[in-house]
Amino acid sequence: MNDAMPQIEPEQPAPKELSPAAKRALAEAEARREAYRAQEAKLPREIGGRGGKEPGRYGDWEIKGLTSDF
Predict the structure, then answer these.
(1) pLDDT means over runs of 10, the chain (70 residues)
(2) Contact assessment for residue 42 and residue 35, using Cβ atoms and an 8 Å cutoff
(3) Is 17 helix (H, G, I), strand (E, B) or coil?
(4) What value, to the nearest 5°, has the Cα angle with vertex 59 and ends 44 and 37?
(5) How far apart are CA 47 and CA 44, in angstroms?
(6) Which long-range contacts (CB under 8 A, 24 or more apart) does 46-53 make?
(7) 30-45: string of b/e by CB count within 10 Å (b at 16+)?
(8) CA geometry: angle at 44 spanning 40 and 47, to 5°?
(9) CA 58/CA 7 separation, integer angstroms
(10) Global pTM value
(11) Planar angle of CA 62, 67, 68, nearest 5 degrees
(12) Alpha-carbon distance 45 to 38, whole Å?
């Protein structure tokens, strides 16, 4: 016999309405992401590369947890 208490789901608060400035900021951020993705899609594909994001973007190179700055 199982005397465990029944699981009670916590009530989820209603989502807050965003201000017009916040909505505009989110729209601008999405536009920047789309522009970045379009620019990245134009770059030639590397053949036989290590995969992942461009390491020079962050100023270091990481492989298997080992990082070297350059």
Answers:
(1) 67 86 96 93 78 63 64
(2) no
(3) coil
(4) 40
(5) 9
(6) none
(7) eeeeeeeeeeeeeeee
(8) 120
(9) 45
(10) 0.47
(11) 110
(12) 14
